[in-house]
Specification:
The chain is of the alpha/beta class and 320 residues long. It folds into two domains: 3-173, NAD(P)-binding Rossmann-like Domain (Rossmann fold); 183-314, Orthogonal Bundle (N-(1-d-carboxylethyl)-l-norvaline Dehydrogenase, domain 2), CATH 1.10.1040.10. Helices cover 52% and strands 14% of the residues. The chain contains 16 helices and ten strands. The protein has an eight-stranded mixed sheet, sandwiched between helices. Strand 3 (43-44) and strand 4 form a beta hairpin. The longest helix has 23 residues, at 175-197. It is globular, with a radius of gyration of 19 Å. Bound molecules: 1,4-dihydronicotinamide adenine dinucleotide and 1,3-dihydroxyacetonephosphate. The site of 1,3-dihydroxyacetonephosphate has 13 residues, from helix 9, helix 12 and helix 13. 1,4-dihydronicotinamide adenine dinucleotide binds at residues 7-12, 30, 47, 75-78, 80, 83-84, 100-103, 132-134, 268, 270. Catalyzes the reduction of the glycolytic intermediate dihydroxyacetone phosphate (DHAP) to sn-glycerol 3-phosphate (G3P), the key precursor for phospholipid synthesis. This is Glycerol-3-phosphate dehydrogenase [NAD(P)+]. Keywords: Cytoplasm, Lipid biosynthesis, Lipid metabolism, NAD, NADP, Nucleotide-binding, Oxidoreductase, Phospholipid biosynthesis, Phospholipid metabolism. InterPro entries: 6-PGluconate_DH-like_C_sf (IPR008927), 6PGD_dom2 (IPR013328), G3P_DH_NAD-dep (IPR006168), G3P_DH_NAD-dep_C (IPR006109), G3P_DH_NAD-dep_N (IPR011128), NAD(P)-bd_dom_sf (IPR036291). Pathway: Membrane lipid metabolism; glycerophospholipid metabolism.
């Protein structure tokens, strides 16, 4: 059974390379010139330099050709997912759509599965998430991910189809937990990067990861998710990776905030919009999310890193 990946950024290309080990894969790029260049050079030089595209991976800008497959992986940034779905609605109707993005939509507070269900109620929706850098996957390094699908049988089928020689998939039906874990770990990574960038130390980072994890759980449980999901790859696993590696763009944005440096705004950093969306949601739901709120204050330059740290330390003392 053929598989297509829509979105030829770092993650889409890496997933397509890994899946090509199972059989033919089509990678769709919205820009025809770039698609042709990738198809001819057998490289994605801008997003994934140094990795060759396997022979059975074909790159196209023809959406009809890409949507010939029944299973479509959507590897576009969270804030563009709705637009991508709307633009290609006719081709996507009735397909199995696996979102590969991590985040919460700024305007609606919805995660990727909910956005798919809103735009294309007839499509089957799933989410592929968990600790994985595109560069690692593309190089064939071992990776474990979570496949979240509300329909247990379809989830099982997808788990089998999308497992490859280097991608081991675990499945869950807790789509809300998987969405929230993957979205919020990016917010915590910005906070951790800021702490390290400002020289506040590894102990402060461990404190933020732990208290950030408590926020992830608080939000997830309030939305009906299971605590075990947050303890899995899509929550704790991805938090551990993203808060500790400067391969992470979210962590690197945090580092630049902590160091008082500029950051290239063309780089995909999902945690920034997600922090704002979740901060808004936490106010509506009356949930205590101090780390998330602090990240929005740093991003919008309402607090310096020193003020942010002092503010978090001075909060009323409480039980853990
Ligand atoms: N890069 C990584 O290591 C990983 C990324 N992810 C997630 O994958 C998602 C995508 O990230 P990357 O591929 O890294 O970003 P990227 O910046 O490398 O690529 C994004 C791609 O989406 C395309 N795109 C943007 N808007 C579009 C639209 N409306 N229609 C069609 N295509 C559109 C862009 O042209 C670009 O090719 C994010 O949510 C990210 O959190 C998840 C795990 C690992
Ligand atoms: O999601 C990722 C790792 O699991 C990639 O992290 P960044 O988007 O911060 O680069």
């Amino acid at each position: 059974m053929s598989i297509s990946v829509l979105g030829s950024g770092a993650f889409g290309t890496a997933l397509a390379i890994s899946l090509a080990g199972n059989g033919p894969v089509t990678l769709w790029a919205r820009n025809a010139v770039k698609a042709q260049a990738m198809q001819d050079s057998r490289r994605n030089g801008t997003r994934l330099p140094g990795v060759a595209l396997p022979d059975n991976l074909s790159v196209t800008a023809d959406i009809a050709e890409a949507c010939d497959s029944r299973v479509l992986l959507l590897a576009v940034p969270m804030q563009t997912l709705r637009r991508a779905l709307q633009e290609h609605k006719d081709h996507l109707a009735g397909k199995t759509l696996v979102a590969c993005c991590k985040g919460i939509e700024l305007d609606t507070g919805l995660g990727p599965i909910a956005v798919i269900q809103e735009v294309l109620p007839q499509a089957a929706a799933a989410l592929l998430t968990g600790p994985s850098f595109a560069a690692d996957i593309a190089r064939g390094l071992p990776t474990a991910l979570t496949l979240a699908c509300g329909e247990a049988d379809r989830g099982k089928e997808l788990q089998e189809q999308l497992t490859t020689a280097n991608l081991r998939l675990y499945r869950t039906t807790d789509t809300i937990g998987a969405e929230i874990g993957g979205a919020l770990k990016n917010v915590m990574a910005i906070a951790c990067g800021a702490v390290i960038g400002a020289g506040l130390g590894d102990s402060a980072r461990a404190a933020l990861m732990t208290r950030g994890y408590a926020e992830m759980q608080r939000m997830a449980l309030a939305c009906g998710a299971k605590a075990e999901t947050l303890a899995g790859l899509s929550g704790f696993g991805d938090l551990a990776l993203t808060c500790s590696s400067d391969l992470s763009r979210n962590y690197r944005l945090g580092l630049s905030i902590g160091r008082g440096e500029e950051f290239d705004s063309s780089i995909t950093v999902e945690g920034a919009a997600t922090a704002r969306a979740v901060a808004e949601q936490s106010r509506r739901m009356n949930l205590d999310m101090p780390v998330t709120i602090t990240v929005t204050n740093l991003l919008d330059q309402r607090l310096t890193i020193g003020e942010a740290a002092a503010h978090l330390l001075k909060r009323p003392l409480k039980e853990e």
